[in-house]
Amino acid sequence: MRMTKKCTMTGLVAFLLVAVVGSHHDDVREGMAKQLLIRYPSVKTTARAIGDESKAKVEKASGRKLDLPGGNVEVFEAGDAIAAFSELKENGKSIFVGVAISPQKKMILSAQAFDESGKVLSSYAPFFVQFARMPYGNPLVFYVPTERLKSLIEKSEGKEKEAGDLKAVIKMYGAMRMTDFLWPMIKNEAGRNEKGAAAKATDLAAIIGGLADIAGGATFLDAAQARQMKDSAVKTQAGLEQLAKMIDGGQFDDAKKLIKDFRPTRCDQCHAACEKIFYKKAYATGMSAAYFYVGHDVLPLAGEKGELSQNLADAVKKTILLLLEAK
Is pLDDT at 10 greater than 80 in this prediction? Predict the structure, then answer.
């Protein structure tokens, strides 16, 4: 059920859902929500209930305990979008991670971090941009515990017969998630003649290049398929490295031409030969598309070892789960 009165806040600690107390905090949180939902003219605040069963589902999938005063989640509504916040601590200071989704489009619209005054933490913006416009055609992918991925990664490093297959599937899924994030940014930035796209092309080149090394260990690929995958990865890596040099050197006309021809001349060959096979193997091994695990399907903050980035990713996932479960 939904209630119109405000929630109250009692002693939140790291990774507890943000509740609200007092008019000052109401105004701050509403201001944060308006920044997440900036394309919408008005924002309405409601308190939605989370039952015990839903709470258990969120805790299992996110790996985080919830402390919800009154059993309610503060949800901000605007058009077809809804948003909520989670709180975590860094060096004794609160960080509020906000996420907006569109249940109708089954898409993450935006994610951002704010300080206690409601100011956007711009240093974290490069991290959160990877979640913007991320689709979730099947919401159930968010309910797969991150611990399952960790278990699969551990098995992939072993000596058992299926280790090579697991490693191939894990690397492929992670690489495709990073491609879905980085490639549109490369195209858009290069289209605006921005040299920052060069670094992203270099990052993606390294990610795709890594697929060449695991092709031979995938027993579910025949010799021709493994060779096609390896050749495509090497060719795509070289193309991305060339693209990075063009952009860095200001050769934007050549870069735009290369981008236009990139997928049909490189990516499509591997997709045609291997995509369905990898999908079937991923399904059989219990892989998901949205673990939100740094180093797999999430890039860390530049220069950060991964702990803070993983905490931020966990907060995003947990907030999405709460939005899906709150009634």
Answer: no
